[in-house]
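Action item from last week, closing it out:
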Amino acid sequence: MSRENQVFEPFSILGLEPGALDSEIKKAYRRLSIQYHPDKNPDPAAHKYFIESISKAYQALTDPISRENFEKYGHPDGRQGFQMGIALPQFLLNIDGSSGGLLLLWIVGICILLPLVMAVVYLSRSSKYTGNHVKNDTLAAYFHLVKPSLAPSKVMEVFVKAAEFLEIPVRRSDDEPLHKLFMTVRSELSIDLKNIKKEQAKFWKQHPALVKTELLIQAHLTRETASLSPDLERDCKRMLEFAPRLLEELIKMAIIPRTSKGHGWLRPAIGVVELSQCIVQAVPLSARKAAGGSAEGAPFLQLPHFDDDIIKKISRKKVRTFQDFQEMPIQERAELLSEVADLSPPQLLDIEKVMELIPSLTVEVSCETEGEEGIQEGDVVTVKAWVTLKRPNRLIGALPHAPRFPFHKEESYWIFLADPTSNAVWFFQKISFMDEAGAVSAASNAIDERMESLGASPKEKTAAIKEAVEKVKSGSRLAMGKFMATAEGSYNLTCHVLCDSWIGCDQKTTLKMKVVRRTRAGTRGGQVSEHAEDENEEEDEIEEEEDEDIESEYSDDEEPKKSNVNGKSGKKGKEASSETSDSDEE
């Protein structure tokens, strides 16, 4: 590139030495004016030189503003522009003969072909991934492998079949370390130890990338990564980097509508969330099971300085659950740990800091058909659930304590309203407590839309939105959605609230719902009198398909909750006799 910028030297133009006196400057200007002034010299070149050089040089040395511009920018008129260009080979600029064709090809290549190639590469890469940066091949594999009966212990086998894991290289130098790792974690694998030789041969016949992935994930869960080679440790970290996105997509594959009624599957969804908890906290899946009368070890293992021996000793002190341990006074808890584990005061302080971060959840859930007392088959049912989070340190949004997970991870919560009998998820939503502004906006919009559909007055709408905003700011989040009412019958629904990062804080509440048929006269929430029902039984059966619109009610007979979760149920529909039915029959 070239740059054109003439240097302005006023002393040199006037024929003076730098630092000349004002009298010398004026004398030199008068002398040059006699020689170059247009009145004295009619030559156009002399005229131009006088205006552009001599006058400006004199002005730069005598006028205060011009002199300041000259000292700052080197010119009496101030900052001067400059020209820039791109140096091209001379043969390209010669448009005669073949050089003209070369210039054309160069322009086409740079301006057309290069952007086109870049666009093709970008589109080919982006078409392989979803919006969550997960490969489409992974989603297809998860969709086909997730089954309604998928047990939590089998979720790992589906999780490791992601296409992202298949791209991690398998080296020959990995064989020996992986065989040693297999012997360390084989009790955590889904193999029958009674027939270890056959099961081991079957395990190693899998795709090498799948074997490596499962062994490295198990090494993380059992906290054996320190014994890995540098290459395997690097591969393990890469797998953990993929894990949160893959697990979220795996949850979605479990709860998306699969059945003819548009329901997802509860059992695999819970299994995936439990696997996510274990990966974030680096806790073995086997620790989730209580054995030999001891307490479930998984929640305790997310605390610093805890191991299996301490958990067993605590169990002998009649601390059976993690909730019992949480409800103990701080002083009593410190005395217990000092007695059974001989922990120092700094270690006890570390434990208490983590205990203050562990959230406590409550949920209030209700279902209703807007504007009606009951729910009939085919109605759009509105689910409204308030999930409240509290911590001992009074924080609402916080990062989980996960020192063994090497990447940034925020807490996420999932709410499932499901029928455990049919393993069907009727409603689900992901909740975050990190973004208060987003939660306020979402709750305000949802309440505004609901009050609008109910025909509420502006005053009532404003009051409802204000109440919702206050609840959000106090640590609650609104989960709101709709589902289609199902067939006639009684349903014992369960509302699960699950955290993907903490173990032991999940909660659930039950909700009983009774579904009744719409009467032939079309009254809602009512039941036909016994006399009319007996007389019109045959006619009702004939017109069943035409008038079928099932109404559901919430039973007043709710089961007592053992957890700290509150469930709300709707009101039972009023009984009404059908006079129209009698008159029609007559």
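Closing note: The CA atoms of residues 37 and 51 lie 9 Å apart.
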